[in-house]
Amino acid sequence: MSALIASYYQTAEFTGTAASTQNTYRGISEALRREHGTKLVADLTRAHVKAMIGKMSKTPAAANNRLRMLRILMRTALDLEWIKVDPTDKVKGFSKKTDGFHTWTEDEIAAYETRHPIGTKARLAMALMLYTGQRRGDAVRLGWKDVSGIKIAVRQEKTGTRLKLKMHPSLVEALAMTDIGAPSFLRTEFKKEFSPAGFGNWFRDRCDEAGLPQCSAHGLRKAAARRLAEAGNSVNLIAAVTGHLSLKEVERYTREADQERMAAAAVDTMPERSDRKQEIVQPAQEVGHTKGNSDDKSNS
């Protein structure tokens, strides 16, 4: 297994991925190496794979990631002709019953902005992600070098996608208070560039300060897509901002926004309850009845 992992690191499938993806794959692979590095690849059976994944039931996402990594390694073993049958074939992972990272609500955005006003690094960090819709790893690399007029250029590390985005007035306002000479907008307290993981941990603390333990950096990217969908933008327009290559994720935001709008319109077409007219007519009848009584009394 140790030799297989070393061989995989030399493949185009691994070297051709983004640095962040390589780090993720290395982390999972090295954990496998520590646990199973001396074992023979040819001895790995379907039962072994199911047992490895099954014992991680308390962390289903991590279990699915390990299964995904094992599939990749077994494909490499097949290419090397070390095995004839893939022991991971048709092995099922844990079902996904989560929407992933929490999408920030408008109330949560307002709470964060109240705690971290314009001019703070925490507010700048939010503005960069919320008004560009980019991942944290891309946001930490942005600087004045990427700005031209009212547009900012992004090259997404994960996919290599290049974007040119018009800057929202709120982002322009936040950037106006940054150091023009700095290579990147977001810097550590030691004036160094953030790593994506380091920034995620730092931003986690800023969310906690605002009383938002459920919120995260990635959730701002989802909030940006949600806002765009709720404003009535099409799937393609949203993807032009976020850089999604697959429209399936974007379609979820537009479906939710469309459902809310269409449901509101549909509810407005429902007829009133049957006794509503009687309530409207009844007061007039009572007034007439009262008037009649007073006339009778005056006549008497």
Task: Summarize the structure in words.
- β1 (147-148) and β2 (151-155) form a beta hairpin.
- The protein has helices at 2-8, 12-15, 19-36, 46-54, 60-79, 106-115, 121-130, 136-139, 169-175, 196-209, 217-230, 235-242, 248-268, 276-299; strands at residues 147-148, 151-155, 162-166.
- α4 (46-54) packs antiparallel against α5 (60-79), α7 runs antiparallel to α9 and α11 (217-230) crosses α13.
- The radius of gyration is 29 Å and the shape is globular.
- By secondary structure, the chain is mainly α.
- It contains 14 helices and three strands.
Number of strands: 3
Helix content: 55-70%
Output the structural class.
Answer: mainly alpha
Name the poorly predicted regions.
289-300
- Please summarize the sheet with the most strands: 3 strands, antiparallel
Strands of the widest sheet, in order across it, are 1-2-3
Please work out how many helical segments DSSP would assign.
Answer: 14
Helix-strand pattern: HHHHHHHHEEEHHHHHH
Radius of gyration: 29 Å
- Percent of residues in beta strands: under 5%
Overall pLDDT level = 88
